[in-house]
Amino acid sequence: MPNNSDINSKIMENIIALCKRRGFVYPSSEIYGGFSATYDYGPYGVELLKNIKDNWWNFMVRHRSDVLGLDTAIFMNPKVWEASGHTTHFTDPLMDCKNCKARVRADKLVEEALRTTKKDFKTVDFSSKTAVRQAIDDLMVACPQCGKKDWTEIRDFNTLFETYQGVVKGQQDIIYLRGEIAQGMFVQYKNILNSTRARIPFGIAQSGKAFRNEVTVQRFIFRTREFNLAEIEYFVKPKEAPEKLEFWKKTLFDWHTKNLGVAENHLHWREQTPDERAHYSNGTFDLEYQFPWGFDEVGAVANRTDYDLKNHQEKSGVNLTYTDPVTQENYLPFVIEPTFGLDRTFLEILCDAYQEETTANGQRTVLKLHKNIAPIQLAVFPLLRNKPDLVSLAQKIFAQLKEKFVCEFDDNGNVGKRYRRQDEIGTPYCLTVDFDSLTDQTVTVRDRDTMQQTRMAVSQLEDFFNKQFI
Length: 470
Ligand SMILES: [Zn+2]
What we know:
Layout (H helix, E strand, L loop, with lengths): L3 H18 L3 E3 L11 E3 L1 H20 L4 E3 L8 H6 L2 H4 L1 E6 L6 E3 H11 L12 H10 L16 E4 L2 E4 L9 E4 L4 H6 L1 H7 L6 E10 L14 E11 L4 H19 L7 E5 L12 E8 L2 E12 L1 H10 L5 E2 L6 E2 L2 E8 H12 E6 L2 E6 L10 E5 L5 H14 L5 E3 L5 H11 L3 E5 L1 H6 L1 E6 L5 E5 L3 H8 L2
Parallel strand pairs: 3-9, 19-20, 19-21
Antiparallel strand pairs: 1-2, 4-5, 4-6, 7-8, 9-10, 10-16, 11-12, 12-13, 13-16, 14-15, 17-18, 21-22, 22-23
Helix pairs in contact: 2-11, 5-6
The chain binds zinc ion.
Zinc ion (ZN) binds next to loops.
Enzyme class: ligase
Function: Catalyzes the attachment of glycine to tRNA(Gly).
Main location: cytoplasm
């Protein structure tokens, strides 16, 4: 009997294989042997990623009156990263295996050991390098590569990516690839206040790439060095911070379950211990999803206090306080940050939607994606590709529907094979034009989840699908 962890790693392997087979995610630079922990989104992956991002933007920005959008550059004045503390505090505890020279992140290895032995994270003191090193010994953590337990001491490793600007390489030209997207929002906060009618409480939202020179990269697109983030910096009166933090926890959870269709019992909140928290936070809650390897972080809500604005005010010499237009009260706002990794959320959605089922016609693999984020909404088939009448009616219906919906036309192989393919892409509906269609102007509409087929008049299709997709 295979044990649970074998089954779970088999599921991950199958999901990764499906991603490549069906054009969701490819290994980067594959013809050159790939590139460590770097992936590219294929035709269906890019649609799914865009749908997640658009859904977030509509829900969190367009449907609210207190959140404004922003898109800042990846390159910033290096002083930003000095003020934010990233050049000094943005470090990972690095440790080497003396036997095989594997380089690992000590804290992640400890977390992993706690997860497998089902021990509470609170049983370990993460506050210092010495304490984490002690935990490595106490938990008898072995090298994941060679199995030996012969570790070096832990040292700090800064994960900001450095690069150079200009034609002459030199110390003065060092710039950084942004380690987080939040700083762009902090340094534009004053411009937004001055150029819009924003009043506290209000938020700034942006999504984009961030870069971290991670020591440990693993689990497909879960932890990579280049990744997509989506977050809001929500500026509040300091005393209202706890209440707003709760509000955003609820909002983020609802978005994952209601808009992305992730099962509620596969998600939970975990409060980070003070030792785990980032240097800027005085309270962080991780939203964790039950991945095949266990609960792991997909998003978080943090109370960043006035840490960032205070540091930027000090280092830039620009007054960043806010004056309430009614009470004239003057203060530095606190910031509540609901954030999530888009790539992780993409993987969360795939894991939650992925199912292997036994049906009357044998095994099938299906992605039961929420209808509103599925990369393809409808697929249109002629029953046979060598019957011009069927093909021409199917093409006519396809041309009409694709004005309104994301559609695909498929006349390859038999209908059964086309269903299997659309099931694996997660297409909610398939329409088949058959010989009856030529006389009575009806088609078969097949539901992905129930596999039930219903006859429907061509004239009613648009109305019907308008109701299925919001
Ligand atoms: Zn080793």
